[in-house]
Design brief:
Helix content of chain B: under 10%
Strand content of chain A: over 45%
Order of helices and strands of chain B: EEEEEEEEEEE
Largest sheet of chain B: 7 strands, mixed
Number of strands of chain A: 11
Radius of gyration of chain A: 13 Å
Distance between the termini of chain A: 37 Å
Shape of chain A: globular
Largest sheet of chain A: 6 strands, mixed
Distance between the termini of chain B: 37 Å
Oligomer: heterodimer
């Protein structure tokens, strides 16, 4: 059983549409991170959410941490082809930097 | 500041061989972590080093090993390669200041193919 369940696994949309990606767990976390990985590159940290109910915005990306700190969502408004990539949620499972990742959501935005 | 660099970027080996991958962290970062990424299993933690000491290890067989040098550069070694070891191997560095959400910076990875 995965600690972090991401859905959907794959999302293909047209430029200008909105999309939401989910990251769910039955465990409570002190913080949760979202990464984006583009082909041939390593993941890049987008945001860290730490407070239940927290909402953070990064241009057209909106991240929310659930009130109970068990789940999170990433919403992209008016998606652009540059948003194409693998979106990963991750949590630190110890104080020494061990990250556990969800399986990821592959997002494809076509012009 | 230069990012995390990994060499080589691509590698092709045959079963039974061994391989060594290298990672140079961001200057000043003392923590280096290694991850394996495959389509089936996703990103999985291999091990983490800090000041030349392995502090944490994932659930991988003993064929996977690593080390860190005094300049924080790290290498990982895989012996007796198996087909299932084909993957993207990612290195991440962190300043590891003790915060519960230290940012990790990933390198571009080494794509290993085992034939």
């Amino acid at each position: 059983t995965q600690l972090l369940e991401q859905s959907p696994q794959f999302l293909s949309i047209q430029e200008g549409e909105n999309l939401t990606v989910y990251c769910n767990s039955s465990s409570v976390f002190s913080s949760l991170q979202w990464y984006r990985q583009e082909p041939g590159e390593g993941p890049v940290l987008l945001v860290t959410v730490v407070t239940g109910g927290e909402v953070k915005k990064l241009k057209r990306l909106t991240f929310q941490f659930g009130d109970a700190r068990k789940d999170s969502s990433l919403h992209i408004t008016a998606a652009q082809p540059g948003d194409t990539g693998l979106y990963l949620c991750a949590v630190l499972t110890d104080s020494w930097g061990k990250l556990q990742f969800g399986a990821g959501t592959q997002v494809v935005v076509t012009p | 500041k230069a990012g995390v660099t990994q060499t080589p970027r691509y590698l092709i080996k045959t079963r039974g061989q061994q391989v060594t991958l290298s990672c140079s962290p961001i200057s000043g970062h003392r923590s280096v972590s290694w991850y394996q990424q495959t389509p089936g299993q996703g990103l999985q933690f291999l091990f983490e080093y800090f000041s030349e000491t392995q502090r944490n290890k994932g659930n991988f067989p003993g064929r996977f090993s690593g080390r860190q040098f005094s300049n924080s550069r790290s290498e990982m070694n895989v012996s007796t390669l198996e087909l299932g070891d084909s993957a993207l191997y990612l290195c991440a560095s962190s300043s590891n200041t003790g915060s519960s959400y230290n940012e990790q910076f990933f390198g571009p990875g080494t794509r290993l193919t085992v034939l």
